[in-house]
Amino acid sequence: QVTLRESGPALVKPTQTLTLTCTFSGFSLSTSGMCVTWIRQPPGKALEWLALIDWDDDKYYRTSLKTRLTISKDTSKNQVVLTMTNMDPVDTATYYCARSWRGNSGDLDYWGQGTLVTVSS
Amino acid sequence: QSVLTQPPSVSGAPGQRVIISCTGSSSNIGAGYDVHWYQQLPGAAPKLLIYDNNNRPSGVPDRFSASKSGTSASLAITGLQAEDEADYYCQSYDNTLRGSLFGGGTKVTVL
């Protein structure tokens, strides 16, 4: 079955770089149409789409965060990594990774449980 | 600006019908991109509820239905139940942003 799990630090200091890893199973990111997306949700607020990487290694970023985000994949390890530079307290959120098997505009049919990242000195 | 607008909250008594709207623009819903809906129960990750405008994944009750017209979409819950109390989000692709958008979310309260 398809599973995704996010991992990374629970606490980062302002100005530091956050590195999150999404480890998945049950599908291959080399399959045509397959994508992994990162989404975040500040406490009590709405979902925010952050970045997507597809089977062809094409990458897409939230416009407002484009200069701070990098998404990459390691197909052999079934992992997708998101880095976010210059972290700020407003970046405190639960970060989710999710799968789409029908391209960039497809639905997100499987989600990880999320990982809470707090930005504080 | 590319946004998907949802009402912050809707409420209804058990058994009633509630509708959640999702209003976009010509660069997303109006451009023909599919709308997807997610249910987020308290403390849980979002779950896919409706895909491609009006399709339910296996296991989603038929009390949930959705439609799309022009630059808007809507999600209907009929026969509202206490377990439907959750946040609901719409999602669509935007060709200006070259990425997805989520709506602001709607909290459904069962009175």
Question: Describe it for me?
Answer:
The complex is a heterodimer of chains A (121) and B (111). In chain A, the strands form 2 sheets. In chain A, strands 2, 4, 5, 6, 9, 10 and 11 form a 7-stranded mixed β-sheet that branches. Chain A has a 4-stranded antiparallel β-sheet with strand order 1-3-8-7, with no helix packed on it. Chain A is globular and about 40 Å long. Chain A has 121 residues and is mainly β. Chain A contains no helices and 11 strands. Chain A starts with a strand and ends with a strand. Chain B is mostly beta strands. In chain B, strands 1, 3, 4, 7, 8 and 9 form a 6-stranded mixed β-sheet that branches. In chain B, strands 2-6-5 form a 3-stranded antiparallel β-sheet, with no helix packed on it. Chain B is globular, with a radius of gyration of 13 Å. The N and C termini of chain B lie far apart (35 Å). In chain B, 39% of the residues are buried. The mean pLDDT of chain B is 97. Classes of the chains: A mainly beta (121), B mainly beta (111).
Sequence-ordered SSE layout with sheet pairings:
The complex is a heterodimer of chains A (121) and B (111).
Chain A: E1 3-7, E2 11-12, E3 18-25, E4 35-41, E5 48-54, E6 59-61, E7 69-74, E8 79-84, E9 93-100, E10 110-111, E11 115-119
Parallel strand pairs in A: 2-11
Antiparallel strand pairs in A: 1-3, 3-8, 4-5, 4-9, 5-6, 7-8, 9-10, 9-11
Chain B: E1 9-12, E2 18-23, E3 35-40, E4 47-50, E5 64-69, E6 72-77, E7 86-94, E8 99-102, E9 106-110
Parallel strand pairs in B: 1-9
Antiparallel strand pairs in B: 2-6, 3-4, 3-7, 5-6, 7-8, 7-9
